[in-house]
Amino acid sequence: MKPTNIFDPNYFHKVVDCQWACPAHTPVPEYIRLIAQGRYTEAYMLNWDSNVFPGILGRTCDRPCEPACRRVRTEEKPVAICRLKRVAADHKGDISAYLPRVPSRKNGKRIALLGAGPASLAVARDLLPLGYEVHLFEKDPAGGGMMRSQIPAFRLPADVLEEEVDLILNMGVECHFNQEITSMKEMLAMDFDAYFVGTGAPRGRDLNLPGRQEVDQHISIGIDWLSSVAFGHTNSIAGDVIVMGGGNTAMDCCRTSKRLGANSVTVVVRSAFEVMKASDWEKEDAMSEGIPIVNNRPPKEFVHENGKLKGVIFGCVKPVKGEDGRLRYEPSGEPDVFLKADRILMAIGQENHCPWIERDVGIQFDKWDCPILDETTLQSTHPKVFFGGDSAFGPENIIWASAHAHQAAISIHLFCQGQDLKADRPPEGVNLLSTKMGIHEWSYDSEHDPAVRYLVPHADKKQALGNIKIEVELGFDRRLGAKEAQRCLNCDVQTVFTDRLCIECDACVDICPMDCISFTDNGEEDELRQRLTAPALTTEQDLYVSGPLATGRVMVKDEDVCLHCGLCAERCPTNAWDMQRSVVHLPQLGSYAG
Amino acid sequence: MTFVAKPRARHPLLPLNELNLTRRDYEGAVSTLCAGCGHDSVSAAIVQACAELSLPPHRFAKLSGIGCSSKTPSYFLDKSHGFNSVHGRMPSVATGANLANRALYCIGVSGDGDSASIGLGQFAHIVRRRINMLYIVDNNGTYGLTKGQFSATNDRGSTSKRGVPNLYEPIDLASMALQIGASFVGRSFSGDKRQLAPLIKAGLMHPGMAFLDVISPCVAFNNHNGSTKSFQYVREHSGKLMEADYIPQSAEINADYEPGSAEDLLMPDGSTLRLRKVDANYDVHDRIGALAHVQRCQDEGEVLTGLLYVDPDAADCHDILETVETPLNALTEEDLCPGSRELARLNDSFR
Ligand SMILES: Cc1cc2nc3c(=O)[nH]c(=O)nc-3n(C[C@H](O)[C@H](O)[C@H](O)COP(=O)(O)OP(=O)(O)OC[C@H]3O[C@@H](n4cnc5c(N)ncnc54)[C@H](O)[C@@H]3O)c2cc1C
Ligand SMILES: Cc1ncc(C[n+]2csc(CCOP(=O)(O)OP(=O)(O)O)c2C)c(N)n1
Ligand code: SF4
Ligand code: SF4
Ligand code: SF4
Ligand SMILES: [Mg+2]
């Protein structure tokens, strides 16, 4: 193998599994260290800089970082990254001094943001400090998009949402609320310098089964029903409720129903429990609130008496693992089942839907009705029009909306400055800073904490189920937060190897608790992976390979399960190993961190 | 010295041995030796060897004298018995331990100062008495613990860190061991665990006095240009005689070597010691030939490593003294005091 180029910004970035997995690449270990030091405000701002909605995300994020966390590979349970984000938000002080200044003299360019969801809001935040005049158009009376209309208050309290939405609106956004956009042509005629479409994926899917038309009155589309709850148009639900679907919308529908007075609530899913789209913690929360989840039951028919819904007939299937490892479903042989129901909430998915974009304005769509976009720049086939969030590639989540927004903002800026969207895109970079302070002192807490993941306290269940506004998760207090923070392995403090200093004494090999380090003859990667101190079988994790050493061998480090404990560097007599903090620089506009 | 304890966390694929233990279960406290000290690698090789042999950690007796090397028993097998004795006196304590309880695996770790200077007399006599043990000397050519004086194994002309040459002839402990009765003699290098760990395994399983001279560089006081016990010097001047593979009784033995280049030795416990020779003509059972070869190589400035000599059938001290099979410490008062009638009978036999 060739020697590893550690100055490639991606190399050490990948070692920071959580940051790499985060769509917005939030510098997770750095903010966790700040929390450990009690510097909540700084931890909050580091988050705000990269993901824009730390208080909201600290409660609701889909957390792609957590399954990626190194702790999953070294033991089992990841660091509670998301809940620590909330610790920063809950305990922060005054942030005003850290906020970017928005110039009063504008730069002369006007930008239209369509839809006031997280994607548009984040674009606004990135563009405003550069002097852009930003206009926001939204059909609802307030900003926040689905964060307001869909996510129930028992998961995301209104004040937390409003604080972070208002922070951006108060930076000087020209808001046009209660304005439904009905024609893109009209928008383009207003001659903004650029347009960002952040209108989401607003159409909930329906199921056309026998009886569907007749029982129309008793069926609601999940997301429409949730938004009518959020805006106060609906405040009760009666009788026996069936929620159809296995995603997060289904979980929010069933838990909301339970709180609004349903006699019984059952979630029925056509597929197996393990492959349900809902996050594990949402399933757990629903079940712990006493809501049964019935799996492997595809619906067949709505049963009614003169238009009065009686229930639903479901078929019975069993999952079979195909040769490709994916599940297929076969009839299980059991007879169909009938479940009684007075109301049905249909939560089987969302779609992109922009009927208001005329198909002759130069914006092309693919066969799934998604706009055709450049994946890096998010520019559509109309050069002035950019997309982001759920409207771009279909329904995702808030953190993806933020990530898109940063890229779209860069593109809009380059476009307005007449620069090339690709060639002139600012590059990524990496800085390496030694953490050595003394012979055995490092500027990070290197000692490995074997503690298992701490449980987050919950509100009293009876009270929570009686009031939709009572937040279920209470969050870590400072003490628990500090303890959980200690579990972070500091994966951004890298083991950096200098081959010309190594005397091949083996001290690092002997001390390494995880058998990461080998000195061996070089070879092809596949073969080399088999003959290291411990076989390196996680091929997604890189091997760090040095140049040739005095004996002709090379140092090979398997990054997979390294604890970043620094013992290799402590035991190295020549400083051939050093623990260096890697700071990945990802281009972003208006970054407070500079 | 490291203050942080080594984390208990381990690689998820770390193998379990026959006792369901991992290598980590054979470790000791975190070393307080200088970072990079060769002695730590020897300890790591002992850990590896004992784990791979699936020996129960609590059946070991670790004996040592004084010196950095003699501190190392603290850094392996922390669930075993140990005695850190006085300077140069490890052999006396080891002799006592082995005579009292022949069922324990005895590992003595000593230094070149501990064994070739102050303890030379003790060394000579324990070898001569063929105590059943593995006697390892971590040989760095210096008194590491007392800050780098020349030891008795330091080569003539080799210089101190400040450039002063050593004026005296070196003692070669491996040659001495060959001469006075060790039935297993090897030499290795701390920087070559692939060779060292199998030699340790074979030495542990050898029934009798197994002596290993392990060149183990002192990074603090004897790893400079001018030293003949530095990492660089040893790597540049080492001549490999052979590599040993220890094949336990349970494992399958396959023969995939050139004729003459390897030799399988059956050990008394049913295991096999396979020697892969670099020089097909070398006879590992010829004690006098071995002695001559070692001396010649030394004269030519070559550091000869590998198994130098082995006699698996030689008697050990218990055989010579014809002691009972039961460890002496397990004998009861009844066994030890057969009564006045027996005493009278014995006295009569001398009349
Ligand atoms: C029930 C439910 C629960 C969810 N829970 C989570 C969660 O816990 N965590 C998470 O990360 N994600 C969650 N999501 C997904 C998340 O809400 C979205 O991915 C995210 O809000 C998308 O952001 P966006 O800015 O692209 O669009 P949206 O948030 O959808 O915002 C689009 C905005 O555009 C407006 N708009 C649309 N069309 C027009 C028009 N023609 N004229 C004017 N305005 C218009 C809409 O009113 C809306 O305000 C959930 C989604 C649902 C349905
Ligand atoms: C009776 C006695 N004399 C002298 C000393 C001082 N002393 C301590 S260690 C040592 C030399 C150790 O050298 P070696 O055995 O080679 O061990 P190393 O530290 O090199 O591993 C000496 C002379 C002592 N502790 N006791
Ligand atoms: S930091 Fe060094 S010693 Fe610690 S686990 Fe990683 S490679 Fe091993
Ligand atoms: S401890 Fe340092 S000098 Fe020794 S082998 Fe490891 S990197 Fe090389
Ligand atoms: S002084 Fe030399 S022998 Fe002693 S611990 Fe340090 S390096 Fe090892
Ligand atoms: Mg010494």
Structural class of chain B: alpha/beta
Q: Would you count the extended β strands of chain B for me? A: 13
Biggest sheet overview of chain A? 5 strands, parallel
Q: CATH first level of one domain in chain A: which class?
A: Alpha Beta
What structural class do the secondary elements of chain A suggest? Answer: alpha/beta
Full CATH superfamily name of one domain in chain A: FAD/NAD(P)-binding domain
Radius of gyration of chain B, Cα only, in angstroms?
A: 21 Å
Instruction: Measure the end-to-end span of chain B.
Output: 65 Å
- The mean pLDDT of chain B is 93
What topology, given as strand order, has the largest sheet of chain B? 2-1-3-4-8-7-13-9
Q: Architecture of one domain in chain A in CATH?
A: 3-Layer(bba) Sandwich
Tell me what the CATH architecture of chain B is. 3-Layer(aba) Sandwich
Number of spatially distinct domains of chain B: 1
Q: Count the strands of chain A?
A: 25
Q: Uncertain regions of chain A: pLDDT < 50 for 5+ in a row?
A: none
Reported by name, the CATH topology of one domain in chain A is: FAD/NAD(P)-binding domain
Classify the oligomer.
Answer: heterodimer
Would you give the CATH topology of chain B? Rossmann fold
Shape of chain A: globular
Query: How large is the share of residues in beta strands of chain A?
Result: 15-25%
Please provide a written account of the structure.
- By secondary structure, chain A is α/β, with parallel strands linked by helices.
- Among the domains of chain A are: 100-201 and 352-416, 3-Layer(bba) Sandwich (FAD/NAD(P)-binding domain), CATH 3.50.50.60; 204-350, 3-Layer(bba) Sandwich (FAD/NAD(P)-binding domain).
- Helices cover 29% and strands 18% of the residues of chain A.
- Chain A has 22 helices and 25 strands.
- Chain A has a five-stranded parallel beta sheet, covered by helices on one side. A five-stranded parallel beta sheet of chain A has the order 6-15-7-8-9. A three-stranded antiparallel beta sheet of chain A has the order 10-11-14, with no helix packed on it.
- In chain A, a hairpin with a 2-residue loop joins strand 19 (436-438) and strand 20.
- In chain A, helix 3 packs across helix 19.
- Chain A starts with 8 loop residues before the first helix and ends in a 9-residue tail after the last strand.
- The mean pLDDT of chain B is 93.
- Chain B has one domain (23-325): Thiamin diphosphate (ThDP)-binding fold, Pyr/PP domains (Rossmann fold, 3-Layer(aba) Sandwich).
- In chain B, strands 2-1-3-4-8-7-13-9 form an eight-stranded mixed beta sheet, with helices on both faces.
- Chain B is an alpha/beta fold and 351 residues long.
- Chain B is globular, with a radius of gyration of 21 Å.
- In chain B, helix 1 crosses helix 7 (193-205), helix 3 (90-100) packs parallel to helix 5 (120-128) and helix 6 runs antiparallel to helix 9 (287-299).
- In chain B, 30% of the residues lie in helices and 19% in strands.
- At the A-B interface, helix 20 and helix 22 of A face helix 1 and helix 8 of B.
- The structure holds flavin-adenine dinucleotide, thiamine diphosphate, iron/sulfur cluster (SF4) (3 copies) and magnesium ion.
